[in-house]
Write a structure and sequence with these properties.
Length: 341
């Protein structure tokens, strides 16, 4: 997630210079064929192209809103995980009681296994990605090859909170996070049978477990259900159609304006050539609008604009480890070049 107030010009151009080059070269070709060679077949009336541009603007606006809703739901879900994790730690400290005092071993076991679940879920959300890997930071389409930026990039992130036997048990399944929660429920049942938990406290802690299952299900739904391909694909196709048609519509408008203000031959050529920078600018705006919505479609991929799952996981680790007075507490995740992963 980009945390700086403004995105650097270098970062923006790094991912969009190709569209500027394409739009500029294509506009120069249209200008050369039409104005210098006198071949008029590429000239289009401006009204139909303008109508197409308006329709595409509405379409991209709808696509951007829909994609942002997915991103925001993902962020809200991880906010719920943070809140419910704190609730779980509080319940572990105050509801697990042997009759005389809180059993620290039991409490630590419940909290550490919960941290294993949080890290396992984060790992599973980042395990696969449609983004290409790059050694350089990009705003769109790529993620950094440096896995040290994401503390949840390997199974070690959750295995360190489990015993060796538990690691063998949960990693044998396709969904380790689910089975960590299942083992948490089994452990609560054992505590109930031992008399450490009474019926009311067991029900309350099982309720929190059920809410954590819901959070995991929401994350998996977003991760495993791709943004409707028809919306994503045709938004890209329509944008490129408009970019191709844009200089064909501009050429007639600039030529008419040059004739209206009665410019000389050389001045007319120079004036009509202004369609090149305007084509580049408008094409760039539509392209960026489409890429912004595309970057929000899958918020767990580990890209620059995605939900900072690793940083949020680290927040939970710090809070819960401090709640059990752990001797070693990791430092908060720090952004790199304005990006929090």
């Amino acid at each position: 997630m980009y945390v700086r107030q403004a995105i650097g010009v270098k970062d923006i151009l790094w991912d969009s210079w190709r569209i500027l080059v394409f739009a500029g070269v294509w506009a120069i070709v249209i200008d050369f064929v039409h104005d210098l060679l006198g071949y008029r077949a590429f000239a289009l009336p401006v009204l139909p192209v303008t109508t197409i541009g308006i329709v595409i603007s509405f379409y991209l606006g709808f696509k951007s809103t829909s994609a942002y809703n997915r991103w925001w739901e993902a962020r809200q879900t991880w906010g719920d995980i943070i809140n419910k994790s704190r609730t779980w730690a509080n319940h572990a400290r105050n509801l697990v009681d042997t009759g005389e005092r809180v059993d620290r071993t039991v409490v630590d076991h419940l909290v550490l296994r919960h941290l294993a679940w949080v890290n396992a879920l984060a790992f599973q959300m980042r395990k696969t990605s449609r983004l290409k890997v790059s050694p350089h930071q990009h705003i769109f389409d790529y993620r950094l090859a440096d896995e040290t930026l994401m503390s949840t990039s390997t199974p070690a992130c959750f295995e360190s909170y489990l015993s060796d036997q538990e690691v063998q048990d949960v990693t044998a399944f396709a969904n380790p996070a689910f089975h960590i929660l299942r083992r948490q429920g089994d452990y609560l049942q054992e505590l109930y049978q031992q008399g450490i938990l009474d019926n009311n406290r067991l029900v309350e802690m099982m309720r929190v477990l059920g809410e954590l299952y819901d959070c995991q299900g929401k994350c998996e739904r977003i991760k495993n259900t791709p943004f409707p391909r028809q919306f994503s694909y045709f938004g890209r196709v329509f944008t490129w159609i408009f970019i191709v048609l844009l200089p064909m519509a501009f050429i007639s408008s600039f030529e008419d304006m040059a004739n209206r203000i009665r410019l000389s031959g050389a001045e007319s050529h120079e004036y009509i050539f202004l369609l090149v920078p305007f084509t580049m600018l408008i094409s760039w705006v539509f392209y960026i609008l489409e890429k912004v919505s595309d970057s929000c479609e899958n918020p767990f991929e580990g890209g620059t604009t995605d939900v900072p799952v690793s940083a949020l996981t680290r927040i939970i680790e710090i809070d819960l480890l401090q709640s059990i007075d752990a001797s070693e507490v990791p430092a908060a995740a720090q952004p790199k070049n304005g990006v929090l992963y």
